[in-house]
Amino acid sequence: MRSMDLFGMTFLVVWITLLIVALNLGGDAYAWNSPVIIGLLAGTGTSFIAFLVAENKASHPVVPMGLFASWKYRNVPIITVARTLLFFHLFASTFYIPVFLQVTGHSSTLAAALVIPFLFTAAIASSSTNYYASRSGVVRPPFWVGLAILPIGMGLMTTLHEGSSLGQVVAYTIICGMGFGSGTVVTMVIPQAGLPSDLLPTVTAFVSALPNLGGVLGVGIVGTVINNKFRARVSAFAPPGYPLARLNDAVAAARDPVLGPQIVAAYVAAFQLGFRILAGIAVLQLILCLGLGRVVLDAANAGEEKVELVSIAADDKGTDDKLDECRVQGPQREKNVSAV
């Protein structure tokens, strides 16, 4: 228990909690310049600084800060950002695409079902990229290709409107799934390559937790953008006294017999803004990942190993003892395969 980084874990939870609460309440329940939001943001910054200090002093930190300051291990911080943003896109997309479909008049069942092509394509892309990387040893190029596809898919999502066909929705979500899926497995492998063995458990656990962080931030931040834009546009045409609290349920508000079409148009504009931001983040993510260092995969177990017994005489003095030495010989190729 003494070696556990309790302070680091505590400050990390406090930092994320305050950040999400501030993003959800800002511009909705409270104005951005209100004392409540300012206090939450101040607490967010303070807890983050405290987390960094705790990690630098901890004997077994949750996040080894040395890995973020070394060019040799730059893959760790780069993948920390990239993996977080991948799931930032995933959760934001799977949460707000169904809402968009319901607002534009589709049933909740159909809206939920139309997320399946995205997830199915992501699973295929993930398995394909993983198989190719494990067989060829080439990791970065297929990952880069997927990251290049993701902003294309997100950009296409910004063109959706209330008159878009379901075929367009399915096609665009499939493209997004191809971009997202290519990184789900390799972003676990890349930061582990080349690390000292004593850091592998810590880095693996840390990287494994990033999808949760990305998901919370994605829904919170993109939701804040969409909801604030939606409320602002409705406020521009709503009659005096219109209860803006109704907008908390955009689907129900869109069924208003008088303002319904305008409310739908307002939500579509907000949805498009949210996905423009996602497309821009995807471009920055690709640029960041172009700086990934060389990745080396251990292929020592590839092929069948041959065990050769070599008998060696113990000495020349007439002794009958012999030593049997087992020498393990791997495949003819190099044991380490370098990824280009």
From TrEMBL:
Coiled coil: none annotated. GO terms for molecular function: transmembrane transporter activity. InterPro entries: MFS_trans_sf. Residues 318-340 are annotated as: Disordered. The chain crosses the membrane at residues 36-54, 75-97, 109-126, 138-157, 169-190, 202-226, 277-297. Its main location: membrane. One of its GO terms (cellular component) is plasma membrane. Keywords: Membrane, Transmembrane, Transmembrane helix, Transport. This is Major facilitator superfamily (MFS) profile domain-containing protein. It comes from Phlebiopsis gigantea (strain 11061_1 CR5-6).
